[in-house]
Automatic annotation (TrEMBL), chain A:
GO cellular component, as recorded: CNTFR-CLCF1 complex; CRLF-CLCF1 complex; extracellular space
Subunit and partners: Forms a heteromeric complex with cardiotrophin-like cytokine CRLF1/CLF-1; the CRLF1-CLCF1 complex is a ligand for the ciliary neurotrophic factor receptor/CNTFR. The CRLF1-CLCF1 heterodimer binds SORL1 (via N-terminal ectodomain); within this complex, the interaction is mediated predominantly by the CRLF1 moiety. The tripartite signaling complex formed by CRLF1, CLCF1 and CNTFR also binds SORL1.
Location in the cell: Secreted
Gene: CLCF1
Pfam families with a match to the protein in the record: PRF
Keyword Signal in record: yes
Protein name: Cardiotrophin-like cytokine factor 1
Keyword Calcium tagged: no
Automatic annotation (TrEMBL), chain B:
Domain Fibronectin type-III, chain residue ranges per copy: 330-424, 515-613, 615-727
Composition bias type Low complexity, residue spans: 947-964
Location of the region described as Disordered in the Swiss-Prot/TrEMBL record: 947-971
Family matches, as CDD domains: FN3
PANTHER family in the record: INTERLEUKIN-27 RECEPTOR SUBUNIT ALPHA (PTHR48423)
Highest taxon listed in the record's lineage: Eukaryota
Family annotation (InterPro entries): FN3_dom, FN3_sf, Hematopoietin_rcpt_Gp130_CS, Ig-like_fold, LIF-R-like_Ig-like, LIFR_D2, Type1_Cytokine_Rcpt_Type2
Subunit structure: Heterodimer composed of OSMR and IL6ST (type II OSM receptor). Heterodimer with IL31RA to form the IL31 receptor.
Protein's gene: OSMR
Pfam families: fn3, LIF-R_Ig-like, LIFR_D2, LIFR_D4
Protein name in the entry: Oncostatin-M-specific receptor subunit beta
Listed SMART domains: FN3
Membrane-spanning parts: 732-752
A GO biological process held by the record: oncostatin-M-mediated signaling pathway
Length: 215, 971
């Protein structure tokens, strides 16, 4: 029986169905998107520290959790677990794409308001990376045959630092922007990880039925 | 009377009525009451803005009026502000007045009312206030939204150092609201049930993004806050000035100072305003601004620079004439032209200023970084200047700057140009001197040349003066500055010329005499100063054409770097300067007189120090001739020449023993470590020995010898100890030394004769043949006596004699202690091979006292004899082998010889005088026990067979039997 098992294992690589060649499919681009998400997570950690120090206390305090007063327009990353599980791939990717489109716009507004050149440089660098993530998601969607979401007229996110919006509320918005961005990146990592697993080549394992007839 | 009373009553009534009328007229409100009072709130500036009119004025009437304004907070009765506002009022004119509140207006309702009064000189009897207007309420809280918590003022911009009042309005009416300034809790005053105020004093700038103030309901998640923008105080521009380069454009510059850079407030702006023309321009840069001069030939300008931000304005002004502020542009195209050995022409150009303006240009010539020439040239566009008195083959830097001639304001920037003059033939003869080596006779000429170009080589012509026809020409390539010539005893004249690319220099001539000359010259000293050595000498009578002072730059122990100085014939002194001179180094100077034949004669020798120092080392002193009362010190190897100063003598310090006084020749002195010492001064530097006398015998003294110069003496750190001898020690030495010598001789003799002594006194083993006793016996007593060899003896029995008084008998026979029993049991050894099961007493070798019966040897069955208890226990085991047995017995025998005195032993050994004819000799067992093995034998006298006539007697048998029976040692 052991010899039989060894023989089967020895011939596994020779099974044609298990050796996929040719078009790699969306797998590599999903992997790249996942890697980019993790990289942006890391990058944002440093940027958020710098920016929140720039805002000053209490925004840079670790336990600061202000009410979400003026940040209602920001796309929420938090979602019920069951809802998240029930999302299909297209919806999942669409939500990611839309969220980062909005967040990127807000982030560019943040960059325009920054007073120090170094901070502007860091924000611009992050915006570029985020733009790359957006393109990467678009690439995955195209590979899977999903159309890109078209923004509805009048729903384009705008940066409106108006006088009605006080500076304190503006700082709260900045805080929430960075927080939502962080949560979105975390969620995206999970999304793409799930998608990556789903897109992996099937039947990579052979189930062997072994019976022991009594020794 | 009645009439008077009626009149009085009437008068009083009339007066009363008049007063009543007057009071009615005066108390009537004037028709100038403020009307249409409106109050508005401006949150940006936290201002209450009032506007009203006075309708009651006649047309075209203007009155000066005073309006008294009252402001109450929270309720009308709480008046917090009263102010009189004076202005000229027209009919239906809308009047305005603003009031800035310290407390943010959103935090409290305010009530305002006013009244007026005519304060115009044209109106008689002014001074009556009108009625108050009705209270107007300004409540900004109505404009708030529905949030539970508000903090005010929102996004306020203040200057650093100002005081700010912050307040919050709570709609949840909770007490647990905390407020924080930059994360630090602040405490304020509760103004109302839902309003609290906090006063921040002397606020300072923290960051561009503003200072955060926020309030929150503890554990409620409710939060409100503001950002307070604190700006630095705008600084007045410094160093404001304007100048022109071309009379067409003015450039004004200033130092703007610091900029807060708040996100809430842009950087301060700068505006340039010219009062004569009335023009102004908004500057694009923070620290400079261009102003175009109009074509109307305006000459005088009055500029005001206005710096401005949201909070403050600052200005600074200057008044000047345009032509007095001309700063020409940097000249250009500065070039050398026609550069020769001593001359060069410099040309340059300038930018023209206006029409026919002249510029004053300054041309500077630098050599080795220093300005050596400076010239001023007036030019219009092109400049040119001839530089002369230049040195050939020298690098120069020419630089030019220009200024406006009409009125000097500033020099332009400099323009520089480097150039080299051409070479010329050397103008001076090389400075040549020789270093004459007396031993080998080689002169070495050295040279220092002032060349007008790069010296390529030196020509040295050596002319033999004694043989004029002989010349020798040497060409020495530069940069060598010396050469060595080998000359004989003749006189030579040496010509040295330096050559560059243009030509040779004049020749320098010296003559070297074949005779080294008289070196015995006067020696002197020369004093050094900070400037150097001032050397003087006696003028040479005769035809001296000059003098040369020669010295070495380094210390004496280093290779000489020869230096010399040429001096004129009338000079008898000079100062020798050198950067190489060091304090504490002796420099030797030799002064030569140069004759008309260019021959040098040594005149004087001088030595000196730039600065004398105290000696750093003491001489190595050798102590000798130590006696009980004196010793001698000498330091003959000490060189006075190589010391850091002229040695004037020596100090001999002697530390006497405690309580001892200094010898009169010594001087008592106290050393730096407070110890008393005796000092003797030797004032002759050549005296290098000293005898210390008058000492105490057998005493310890410490001494040191230190040289001294004019500056001081050497270090007093290492005293040498010396102990004077005992007074009688020398006598003892006279006795002990011969004794030691004698003993030594005796010991040597003894050593040489040791073999002889050994044989005589203590032979290695008792050799009866060698014993002198034997010879004595032989010669004197019995000529027949001979030596019995043990090997020849066949032992047959051991007889133990029981001495009645001997403790050994008791030991062997009666004492039976367990220990003894143990020892005695194995003490019977077979001397001869016998049967194992031998049990009964057999025949024994019997040593009879003083007798030996050879017949007894016939008893061959006796094979055992007792071993004495003194035998070492460890020998008992190995004795079973024949060899060990023999050794053990032999040792035992030797011990007995050495330890047991004759007469005390129980067993007496009698030398067995075996018969030489004994036929038993060959029948001895392989390892016969020697008689000596019996430990307590006494010397036995062997008796010849003839004498031993008696057979073994009963006694002897008995003795044997007794031995076996009594001692229980034999089995």
């Amino acid at each position: 029986m052991l010899a039989c098992l060894c023989t089967v294992l020895w011939h596994l690589p020779a099974v044609p169905a298990l050796n996929r060649t040719g078009d790699p499919g969306p797998g590599p681009s999903i992997q790249k998107t996942y890697d980019l998400t993790r990289y942006l997570e890391h990058q944002l950690r440093s940027l958020a520290g710098t920016y929140l120090n720039y805002l000053g206390p209490p925004f840079n305090e670790p336990d600061f959790n202000p009410p979400r007063l003026g940040a209602e327009t920001l796309p929420r990353a938090t979602v019920d677990l069951e809802v998240w599980r029930s999302l299909n791939d297209r919806l999942r990717l669409t939500q990611n794409y839309e969220a980062y489109s909005h967040l990127l716009c807000y982030l560019r507004g943040l960059n325009r308001q920054a007073a120090t050149a170094e901070l502007r440089r860091s924000l611009a660098h992050f915006c570029t990376s985020l733009q790359g993530l957006l393109g990467s998601i678009a690439g995955v969607m195209a590979a899977l045959g999903y159309p890109l979401p078209q923004p509805l007229p009048g729903t384009e996110p705008t940066w409106t630092p108006g006088p009605a919006h006080s500076d304190f509320l503006q700082k709260m918005d900045d805080f929430w922007l960075l927080k939502e961005l962080q949560t979105w990146l975390w969620r995206s990592a999970k999304d793409f990880n799930r998608l990556k697993k789903k897109m992996q080549p099937p039947a990579a394992a052979v189930t062997l039925h072994l019976e022991a007839h009594g020794f | 009377m009645a009439l008077f009373a009626v009149f009085q009553t009437t008068f009083l009534l009339a007066l009363l009525s008049l007063r009543t009328y007057e009071s009615e007229v005066l108390s009537e409100p004037l028709p100038l009451t403020p009307e249409s009072l409106k109050v508005s709130v401006n949150s940006t500036c936290q201002c209450l803005h009032l506007q009203w009119t006075v309708h009651s004025l006649a047309y075209h009437q203007e009155l000066k009026m005073v309006f008294q304004i009252q402001i109450s907070r929270f309720k009308t009765s709480n008046v917090i502000w009263v102010e009189n506002y004076s202005t000229t009022v027209k009919r239906n004119q809308v009047l305005h007045w603003s009031w800035e509140s310290e407390l943010p207006l959103e935090c409290a309702a305010h009530f305002i009312r006013m009244r007026s009064m005519v304060d115009d000189a044209r109106i008689p009897k002014p001074g009556f206030w009108s009625n108050w207007s009705s209270w107007e309420e300004a409540d900004a809280q109505n404009m708030l939204g529905h949030d539970p918590l508000f903090v005010f003022p929102k996004d306020k911009l203040v200057e650093e150092g100002s005081n700010v009042t912050i307040c919050y309005v709570s709609r949840i009416h909770q007490d647990n609201i905390s407020c924080y300034l930059e994360g630090v809790q602040i405490y304020g005053e509760q103004l109302d049930r839902s309003v609290s105020a906090f006063e921040l004093k002397n606020v300072s700038f923290i960051r561009e993004k503003g200072t955060n103030v926020f309030c929150k309901v503890d554990q409620g998640g409710v939060l409100g806050g503001i950002v307070l923008f604190v700006s630095k105080v705008l600084e007045e521009p410094k160093d404001f000035s304007c100048e022109t380069q071309d009379l067409k454009t003015l450039t004004c510059t200033w130092d703007p100072g610091s900029d807060t850079g708040l996100t809430k407030q842009p950087s301060q702006s700068y505006t340039l305003f010219e009062s004569f023309s009335g023009k102004k321009t908004l500057c694009k840069h923070r620290n400079w601004c261009d102003w175009q001069v109009a074509q109307d030939s305006q000459e005088t300008f009055n500029f005001t620079l206005l710096a401005e931000n949201y909070l403050r304005k600052r200005s600074v002004s200057i008044l000047f004439n345009l032509t007095q502020r001309v700063h020409p542009m940097t000249p250009y195209n500065l070039l050398p032209k026609n550069v020769g050995a001593t001359k060069a022409t410099m040309t340059w150009k300038v930018h023209s200023i206006g029409n026919n303006s002249t510029l004053l240009c300054q041309l500077e010539l630098l050599a080795e970084g220093k300005v050596i020439q400076q010239s001023n040239v007036s030019i219009k566009v092109n400049g040119e200047y001839l530089l002369s008195e230049l040195e050939p083959d020298t690098e120069y830097v020419a630089r030019v700057r220009c200024a406006y001639t009409n009125h000097f304001w500033k020099w332009s920037e400099l323009i520089s140009q480097k150039f080299n003059t051409a070479e010329a033939a050397p103008s001076e003869a090389p400075d040549v001197w020789r270093n004459l080596k007396l031993v080998s006779g080689h002169p070495t000429p050295l040279s220092k040349v002032h060349a007008n170009g790069k010296i390529l080589f030196y020509n040295v012509i050596v002319e033999n003066l004694d043989k004029p026809s002989r010349f020798e020409v040497l060409s020495i390539p530069a940069p060598a500055s010396s050469t060595e010539l080998t000359l004989d005893q003749c006189s030579y004249q040496i010509h040295v010329t330096a050559h560059n690319s243009v030509g040779p220099s004049p020749a320098s001539v010296i003559v070297v005499s074949g005779d080294p000359g008289n070196e015995e010259v006067e020696k002197g000293r020369v004093n050094g100063t900070e400037d150097g050595f001032s050397v003087s000498w006696k003028p040479q009578s005769g035809d001296a054409t000059g003098y040369v002072v020669e010295w070495c730059d380094g210390p004496q122990d280093l290779p000489c770097v020869l230096q010399w100085k040429n001096l004129g014939p009338n000079t008898t002194s000079t100062v020798i300067r050198s950067g190489a001179f060091r304090p504490g180094v002796r420099y030797n100077f030799r002064i030569y007189g140069i004759s008309t034949r260019r021959m040098a004669h040594l005149l004087e020798k001088k030595a000196g120090y730039l600065e004398e120092l105290a000696p750093s080392d003491n001489p190595q002193v050798v102590m000798s001739k130590l006696t009980s009362r004196s010793f001698t010190l000498s330091w003959k190897d000490y060189s006075t020449e190589s010391q850091p100063g002229f040695i004037q003598g020596y100090h001999v310090y002697l530390k006497p023993k405690a309580g001892e006084q200094c010898h009169p020749a010594f001087e008592k002195t106290v050393l730096p470590e407070d110890s008393v010492c005796c000092k003797y001064t030797i004032d002759n530097p050549e005296q290098k020995t000293f005898v210390v006398e008058n000492l105490q015998p057998e005493s310890v003294y410490e001494f040191i010898v230190t040289p001294y110069t004019s500056v001081g003496e050497g270090p007093l750190d290492a005293f040498t100890k010396v102990t004077t001898l005992d007074e009688y020690s020398h006598t003892l030495i006279h006795i002990i030394l011969p004794m030691i010598f004698c003993i030594l001789i005796v010991m040597i003799i003894c050593y040489l004769k040791s073999q002889w002594l050994k044989e005589k006194c203590y032979p290695d083993s008792p050799n009866p043949y060698k014993s002198s006793v034997l010879s004595l016996i032989k010669s004197k007593e019995n000529p027949h006596l001979t030596i019995m060899y043990v090997n020849d003896c066949v032992p047959d029995a051991i007889e133990v004699i029981n001495k009645p008084e001997g403790s050994k008998i008791q030991f062997l026979g009666t004492r039976k202690s367990p220990t003894e029993t143990e020892f005695t049991k194995p003490a019977y050894l077979y001397l001869l091979p016998t049967e194992k099961n031998y049990s009964g007493p057999g025949p024994c070798i019997c040593f009879e006292n003083f007798t030996y019966n050879q017949a007894a040897s016939d008893f061959a069955s006796c094979g055992h004899f007792p071993v004495t208890p003194q035998a070492p226990r460890h020998q008992l085991g190995p004795l079973t082998s024949p060899e060990n047995l023999l050794k053990a017995l032999e040792q035992n025998y030797m011990n007995s010889l050495g330890e047991i005195p004759a007469g005390e032993a129980n067993l007496n050994y009698v030398s067995q005088l075996a018969s030489p004819t004994s036929g038993d000799k060959d029948s001895l067992p392989t390892n016969p026990p020697e008689p000596a093995l019996c430990s307590e034998y006494k010397m036995q006298t062997a008796i010849p067979l003839g004498l031993a006539s008696a057979p073994p007697s009963e006694n002897s048998s008995l003795s044997s039997t007794t031995l076996l029976g009594q001692g229980e040692h034999c089995r």
